[in-house]
Amino acid sequence: MASRGGPRAAGTDGSDFQHRERVATHYQMSVTLKSEIKKLIYTHVVIWLLLVAQMVVGHLKLLPHDQVAMPYQWEYPYLLSILPSLLGLLSFPRNNISYLVLSMISTGLFSVAPLIYGAMEMFPMAQQLYRHGKAYRFIFGFSAVSVMYLVVVVAAQVHGWQLYYSKKLLDSWFTSTQEKKKK
Fold first, then answer.
1. Transmembrane segments in this chain: where (predicted)?
2. What contacts 102, CB < 8 A, 6 or more positions away?
3. Per the structure, how many domains does the chain have?
4. Is residue 84 part of a domain?
5. Which of 8, 74, 90, 142 has the most CB atoms in a 10 Å sphere around its CB?
6. How far apart are the first and last CA of the chain?
7. Is residue 91 part of a domain?
8. Does residue 12 belong to any structural domain of this protein?
């Protein structure tokens, strides 16, 4: 190699350093997974804000009851689902493994569990709607149970992918940590 402005070493054109310029795969994966998880967290925040808006409008009676129905019981514990997302975001700057693990555990408790409960809570109303065509709750003219099942399905996918990517990110961080310990 050459020193600054000095002669080059004999037999080199200066391009033999490029093999050392590659970023390790676990660092590349970490950046990619963080980006994907952030997108999922932002999607979750949008879902969460829609549920908060429905609750506020329903409880404060800002719109008639036939326009926006009162919230189902599962929606109240689901409000806590914002906490795992915040923990996930807090884990990113310094690759904090403990925050990411807490985020994954609390996602199961505060996000996935209320969604499962919500699917079970709304099932009898969904049966009644599709067997007899009767709906008693509405959200802007649509059956509330249909709208909320759509929300449950989308939210379950968001949280499922979030857990999957978080696990892969955790594995990537462990790989990085193990390589540092070997050196």
1. 40-62, 99-118, 138-158
2. 84, 87
3. 1
4. yes
5. 74
6. 26
7. yes
8. no
What average pLDDT is seen over the chain? Answer: 86
Q: Which domain holds residue 46?
A: 26-182
* pTM as predicted: 0.80
Phi-psi map region of 86: left, alpha, beta (phi>0 left; psi -120 to 50 alpha)? alpha
At 117, list the tokens: 């409960």
For tokens 């199961």, name the residue.
108
Task: List, in sequence order, every residue forming a beta bridge with 143; answer none if it has no partner.
Answer: 138
Question: What φ, ψ does residue 125 adopt, rounded to 5°?
Answer: -70, -35
Q: Is 57 exposed, middle or buried (0-12, 13-18, 19+ CB in 10 A)?
A: middle
3-state secondary structure the chain: CCCCCCCCCCCCCCCCCHHHCCCCHHHHHHHHHHHHHHHHHHHHHHHHHHHHHHHHHHHHCCCCCCCECCCCCCHHHHHHHHHHHHHHHHHCCCCCHHHHHHHHHHHHHHHHHHHHHHHHHHHHHHHHHHHHCCCCCEECCEEHHHHHHHHHHHHHHHHHHHHHHHHHHHHHHHHHHHHHHHC
Tell me: the pLDDT tens digits for 20-62? 666 667 778 888 999 999 999 999 999 999 999 999 998 998 8
